[in-house]
Design brief:
Oligomer: single chain
CATH topology: Glutaredoxin
Number of helices: 7
Number of domains: 1
CATH architecture: 3-Layer(aba) Sandwich
CATH class: Alpha Beta
Strand content: 15-25%
Number of strands: 5
Strand order of the largest sheet: 1-3-2-4-5
Order of helices and strands: HEHHHEHEHEEH
Helix content: 40-55%
CATH superfamily: Glutaredoxin
Length: 157
């Protein structure tokens, strides 16, 4: 009978270890301000989405007509399927408009990051694209665009 508590203790220890090891390693997440290059090199799903998406000729022409004082802050989760789809599409837009200023901020599951910028901007969903013209916020695209990122941003202008 003395073996039973020892066996039970061993089973509990194994189960707890398995649960602890199943937790997501937050160091694998992109958290805080990151570069496009860093995100693409460290997260293959973003790279794959980038390679498969193509802008149309009409979208490229539209992007090239945007004003030079446009700035977009992108709050995303490297773990988020909507971010994995939309952020690489945004990168295609940036490739067509070198004057398009942007900032990428990776968030954890709680939609936060070390600098508190997400909280300050009341970010609740990922991705969230905050579009500025000059210093003025002119609109947001949250989770997914109504039509496309290009069309939705153009409609804000």
């Amino acid at each position: 009978m003395k073996k039973f508590p020892a066996i039970l203790s061993s089973i509990i220890l194994v189960v707890l270890s398995a649960c602890a090891n199943s937790q997501v390693d937050k160091t694998a997440m992109a958290i805080g301000e990151v570069s496009q290059q860093q995100l693409m090199s460290e997260h293959k799903s973003f790279q794959q989405s980038y390679q498969t998406f193509q802008l149309s000729d009409n979208e490229i022409a539209e992007i090239k007509g945007w004003p030079n004082d446009l700035h977009i802050e992108v709050y995303f989760g490297s773990w988020c399927h909507d971010s994995q789809r939309e952020v690489p599409r945004f990168f295609k837009m940036v490739a067509e408009s070198p004057t398009l200023s942007n900032r990428l901020i990776g968030l954890d599951y709680e939609k936060s990051e070390p600098n508190g910028s997400a909280k300050k901007h009341d970010i609740k969903y990922t991705p969230t694209f905050i579009v500025y013209q000059g210093d003025k916020e002119i609109g947001r695209i949250i989770e997914r665009p109504n039509v496309s990122l290009t069309a939705d941003i153009s409609a804000m202008l």
